[in-house]
From TrEMBL:
InterPro entries named among the record's database cross-references: NAD(P)-bd_dom_sf, Sc_DH/Rdtase_CS, SDR_fam
Tagged with keyword Isomerase: no
Record's keyword terms, sorted: NADP, Oxidoreductase
Protein name, as recorded: NAD(P)-binding protein
PROSITE patterns: ADH_SHORT (PS00061)
GO molecular function: oxidoreductase activity, acting on the CH-OH group of donors, NAD or NADP as acceptor
Annotated transmembrane regions: none
Length: 293
């Protein structure tokens, strides 16, 4: 565990984790509980999520985790999961917008020779629904919950939101058109929201891993990579934890490939010419659009 993550004090806090039945979400839930955090474990898969929560409660001998079935693409289901969690644990200090799926084929493969025999089909946008809209649902819930609760007396923050993005959010790849789009959208949204919430006792950050062995990636795909190029789940969870507690970091895109961790900066090409023009009107534009008063 890095110095930063090991110094974070979060005992007594409460977290809401989507995609908690497997992979990063499950490992994160375990780590949070080991640090004295209560966890609302949310997943579309009920059985394994409940089993994991039961194990955490049995291990600690306390009611530290609840499992709630919710499809992250349905806002009302996430809201209901929060309300249940609030009844049990009182508040939520950390929201992890983590649930995700791998790229799903969105239109049939390009094949001019057979295209005349096939109708033009509607795209399958499920990848965007889960990886972009599902995580934005968590964000929408988090910001409105933070707005309605007092700052945490131990760290002074109303709350913290952490997204699980991906390195393909910066580097578009041919094999993940919608997944890359969703992750790029998350990184961009995180940077925008971090500006709006920076003076409101709320932090927003994203963790962007490269390929890691979890259930999202099939063995067939994992076998294409050298083991040393893969990230470890522990290193990713460590980065997730590092921005909690009294950490003031906001707007970071913490990225991991293999054993290397870095902050991926926003695009800078032409930024000095473009940003002054945009920032002059940013407050007024938001007002004109009805985003704030
Ligand atoms: N593993 C990797 O290589 C890798 C790399 C970069 C980013 N990520 C991201 O990490 C996050 C977690 O994925 P993981 O690698 O732990 O995979 P995983 O498949 O092990 O876990 C994802 C979890 O999300 C849940 N889920 C899927 N759709 C859902 C929905 N609509 N509502 C609620 N829950 C849903 C699944 O049931 C599963 O438990 C995802 O956002 C993924 O895109 C993974």
């Amino acid at each position: 565990m890095s110095d930063t993550a090991s110094q974070v004090v979060i005992e007594g806090d409460v977290a809401f984790v989507t995609g908690a039945a497997s992979g990063f979400g499950l490992a994160l839930s375990n780590e949070l509980v080991s640090r004295g955090v209560c966890v609302i474990m949310v997943d579309i898969v009920e059985d394994s999520c409940k089993k994991a929560a039961d194990e955490l409660n049995a291990k600690t001998g306390k009611n530290v985790a609840i499992a709630v079935k919710a499809d992250s693409t349905v806002f009302e289901e996430q809201l209901a999961a929060y309300e249940l969690g609030k009844e049990v644990f009182g508040r939520v200090d950390y929201f992890f917008a983590n649930a995700g799926i791998v790229e799903r084929p969105w239109i049939p493969p390009f094949s001019p020779s057979t295209s005349s025999t096939r109708p033009i089909t509607k795209p399958n946008l499920r990848t965007l629904d889960v990886d972009l809209n599902g995580q934005l649902n968590t964000a929408a819930l988090a910001f409105q919950v933070f707005e309605r609760q007092e700052p945490n007396p131990r760290n002074g923050f109303r709350g913290k939101l952490v997204f699980t993005a991906s390195v393909v959010g910066y580097y578009a790849v041919k094999s993940a058109p919608l997944y890359s789009t969703a992750k790029a959208g998350i990184v961009h949204f995180m940077r925008s929201a971090a500006q709006y919430y920076e003076d409101k006792g709320i932090t927003v950050n994203a963790i962007s891993p490269n390929i890691t062995v979890t259930a999202i990636t099939s063995q067939e795909i994992l076998s294409l990579f050298n083991q040393e190029d893969l990230c470890s789940i522990d290193l990713v969870v460590e980065q997730m934890i590092s921005v909690l507690g009294s950490c003031k970091d906001n707007g970071r895109a913490i990225s991991i490939t293999g054993k290397t961790v870095w902050d991926n900066p926003p695009d800078t090409l032409m930024r000095d010419q473009v940003l002054p023009v945009l920032s002059v009107g940013d407050d007024a534009i938001g007002k004109a659009l009805g985003l704030w008063q």
